[in-house]
Amino acid sequence: MTTSFSLEFIGSKFLNIEDQDYVIMKDTTGKNYLYINGEGTDGNGYELWRTDGTESGTTLVKNINPSDDSSPYYFAVMEDIINNKNYLYFTATDGTNGRELWRTDGTTTTLVKDINPSGNSSPTELTVMKDIVNNKNYLYFQANDGTNGTELWRTDGTTTTLVKDINPSGNSSPTWLTVMEDENGKNYLYFRADNGTNGYELWRSDGTDIGTTLVKDININGSGDVKNFTVMEDENGKNYLYFRAENSSNGTELWRSDGTLNGTTLVKNVNTAGDGVSSPSHLTVMKDTMGKNYLYFSALSVTYGRELWRSDGTDIGTTLVKDIYVGSGSSSNIRDLTVMEDETGKNYLYFQATDGDNGAELWRTDGTTTTLVKDIMTGSGDGDPYDLIVMPDATGKNYLYFAASHIQDEYYLWRSDGTPEGTTFTASSTVHAGYDGGTEPYSLVVMSDTTGKNYLYFIGAADSDGGVFNLYRLVITESVSVEPIICFKEGTQILTLDLNTRLDTYKNIENINVGDLVSTYKHGYVPVNIIGYSNLINTSSDSRITNKLYVYKKDDHQELIEDLYMTGGHAVLLDYENITDNQCDKMMEEMGKLYKTDDKFRLMAKLDYRCDTVDDNRQYRVWHICLDHENEWMNYGIYANGMLVESTCERHAQNFLHKKENVVELIKDQCQLNALLV
């Protein structure tokens, strides 16, 4: 399978796209659309657009502010469960009502409520929470109605109300809105807020005034400064909210809460140096192979600097994963933590880090083994991978996509399957030609089309000086490349050592096993390392192609003990004077150079007119034989039906479909071999 990449520019209707997130919403037919804040070529300024990934499917949703930019921000999708219909909620200004809350179904776009009639309510932190009892969704957000300050509000799309005036004397400014279900199946909204007395502490709400309460005053001498909320389920199925907070004795450390006063506790004092702070950040949950959840995070300690840690929610279970940049005064600066499952179902955490030698590069860990995936910017420079996102291919295999720099100060789109060789540059674009920052992709998002095929969308540079950014998508083309099927038809005899008689004996290739000793041209007896077969579909065409059988006839070649059948990509070994100039040219064209095995030159059967094509439409079993060698690309001269030919190398042998198991230890030591020959 050959994979090729190209970037498709789908922003022809935009002059520029604002540096804001966008969002995917499914319509009533199940079709996905990407909603964007873009400046169109239609002269309407920055307005709400949507695209299905095609030029014809890219349209203005509504010109909300005809006289200026409506600049739609803070997107959130909420389902109207009763009517089975999605709505996109966002903030915008229509030039009359200030910045307020709007919604659209993709066709009809309306103001939800003018919360602040005298100015901007500026809704932010849009978060959906389901009222499980009544099977109804509500959108929660912070807004300022001009009277109560910036407080917690909610709407069902029709009725929009203040949940609670948490700080009657000012702004409670609720942020980090996060939904967590309790043990009874009831959802609560957790958030950071300041009631004017306790500072910024942990609160929760069930959507009612009386049900909106302070969970715990973590820092009784000031603000707990809670932030970085993440929910993780323990082994008993109970949810806990993890976050960073500061109390009067431990500094800023990792905490957790089950929503109760007594259940809100310090997990571990990671930085024990006086009033030191570990300031945990980038909190990310990953399940291990046993199904147990761990919270991974970046933290600062006096011993290791800022490094990667993980926690199962207990003090003893909160440990350093790896000191990547060794030393107390050095930090690996972990960021962009992203979980990806491999083909075996095992999770790995991918992230950016520096070990002091390779710069900021892509790393991964399974919680036990932590390794550099690839040094993208070779040397001490920074590959600086960011915006990590997972997208499966058509077979279901996951790949990690991200922006990175392999050329100084230029950023492009990369992908990785977790291996160094599988971590590759994808494609660039000519739209930004001349801009020295590269494609500079950001805000990567995955959207599937109506056939279920995934596409990666991103915003990238779209002019020569980096002043304009627009929408791209990555097009991945998978083409089936026909692997050359090499070596010999079943029944071919290979010269081997018979350990019973101590004599050279020809043995049918299908009867040879791993460990058997094969007689070579220059290296004595060498054990078989890999042997297997593939099925070749032969064709009756007389064209001399690679995946076809050719026959050297005994009557034409005195060294043969019987006719030799081999595939077109396999080579006989000849002295240079026995190869014609035309054959040399053809080999150079095919392989890029003339290859030798020992002191003989290789000539592929399809270029050797001393053999004939086998012209029938049949399936043949073709056997491949590889001998042990310290270099996986090297092969040997061996004898097949009496003719000197090449064996296959280990690198090519990995493509064998059917391999015999290794049931004996290979004889590699010459002393052992000599003992057998006595």
List strands and helices in order, with pairings:
Layout: E1 2-9, E2 14-17, E3 23-26, E4 32-40, E5 46-51, E6 59-62, E7 73-80, E8 85-93, E9 99-104, E10 109-113, E11 124-131, E12 136-144, E13 150-155, E14 160-164, E15 175-181, E16 187-194, E17 200-205, E18 212-216, E19 227-233, E20 239-247, E21 251-257, E22 264-268, E23 281-287, E24 293-301, E25 305-311, E26 318-322, E27 335-341, E28 347-354, E29 360-365, E30 370-374, E31 386-392, E32 398-407, E33 410-416, E34 424-427, E35 442-448, E36 454-461, E37 469-479, E38 488-489, E39 493-498, E40 503-508, E41 517-519, E42 525-537, E43 549-552, E44 564-567, E45 571-574, H1 581-591, E46 596-597, E47 600-604, E48 612-613, E49 619-627, E50 637-640, E51 643-646, H2 650-653, E52 658-659, H3 670-677
Antiparallel strand pairs: 1-37, 2-4, 3-4, 4-5, 5-6, 7-8, 8-9, 9-10, 11-12, 12-13, 13-14, 15-16, 16-17, 17-18, 19-20, 20-21, 21-22, 23-24, 24-25, 25-26, 27-28, 28-29, 29-30, 31-32, 32-33, 33-34, 35-36, 36-37, 38-49, 39-40, 41-42, 42-49, 42-52, 43-44, 43-48, 45-47, 46-47, 50-51
